[in-house]
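Review this today:
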Amino acid sequence: MAEECTHECGSCGKSCEKRDLHVSLRAGSSVKKVIGIVSGKGGVGKSLVTSLLTCKIARDGYKAAILDADITGPSIPESFGVGLNRSEGDGQSLNPVVTNSGIQLMSMNFLLENENDSVIWRGPVIAGAVKQFWTDVNWKDVDFMFIDMPPGTGDVPLTVFQSLPVDGIIIVSSPQQLVRVIVEKAVKMANMMNIPILGLVENMSYVKCPDCGKPITVFGKSNIEKIAESFNLEVLARIPMEESTSQAIDAGDVESIKNDYLDKAAEKIEALLK
């Protein structure tokens, strides 16, 4: 531990090997593997990737869950059509909301009186709420928990990486030229915290021509392969922009989406248990 350490771990970017900061699940809860979905900036599709990956894992026969760590801008409940649901508890613990396919969800929206109420909290309070989603929720026999992170490298990602037993992260990017900066920020934070990086997923990669099916690179030619090579990472998926996907998400029916874009990513994640 560094000599200048103040023991205020919530505001520290150092990784201290001598101290285990992980917090425990509630008695009776069980989560085998934890996967973070992260990015260096917002608007690249972390929640979409989180939702699609979780649904794929569930279809493969595993018990899946999502911890929505984006406290001020949650979108997971709407994607699954459970935005009006509320989490029930006994005053000591909370029960996750369960979707039609059995996916367990916990999000700030399940605790608000109205789903469109604003959460106007400072960083440490938000980070504390994320930690409580781990410690105070009755997670039942979860094989894979996905954590939908807020953008950036601030309080919440730091809290998650320090407090939860994260087995790996997937970095989500987009094809624009600034993507290298996005990826590099996320990679550097993961390396500092000794969190394994499973690979990259590029969202909004292209649009399929409705007539011939040819991919159209709306944001220009992708550099994701070169970027992945420079960081010694694997590209796990390139997800196109599709009207059917947007319509399903808007209708709260993400569980109906079945494509093979994230099959490779799912295989790599499932291998953590095998």
